[in-house]
């Protein structure tokens, strides 16, 4: 299961590398992730959070992920 969220993590990483925080302010990706005011990668951050949360949620583990 550790590779289950690799696609979501990769898209979040690529978005953060292109964000103004990393490009203009020359901060690391980790420092930019700690800042909650970044609106550019909010969808990718939420997708990664939901993927990691679904790994811990027993109902999701039994039934499978939802397809919206």
From TrEMBL:
The keyword tRNA-binding does not apply. GO terms for biological process: mitochondrial respiratory chain complex IV assembly. One of its GO terms (cellular component) is mitochondrion. It comes from the Eukaryota. Pfam families: Pet191_N (PF10203). PANTHER family: CYTOCHROME C OXIDASE ASSEMBLY FACTOR 5 (PTHR28627). Belongs to the PET191 family. This is Cytochrome c oxidase assembly protein. It comes from Nitzschia inconspicua. The lineage of its organism: Eukaryota, Sar, Stramenopiles, Ochrophyta, Bacillariophyta.
């Amino acid at each position: 299961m550790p590779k289950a969220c690799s696609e979501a993590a990769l898209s979040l990483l690529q978005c953060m590398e292109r964000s103004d925080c990393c490009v203009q302010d020359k901060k690391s990706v980790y420092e930019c992730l700690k800042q909650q005011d970044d609106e550019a990668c909010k969808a990718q951050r939420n997708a990664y959070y939901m993927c990691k949360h679904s790994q811990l949620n027993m109902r999701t583990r039994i039934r499978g992920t939802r397809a919206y």
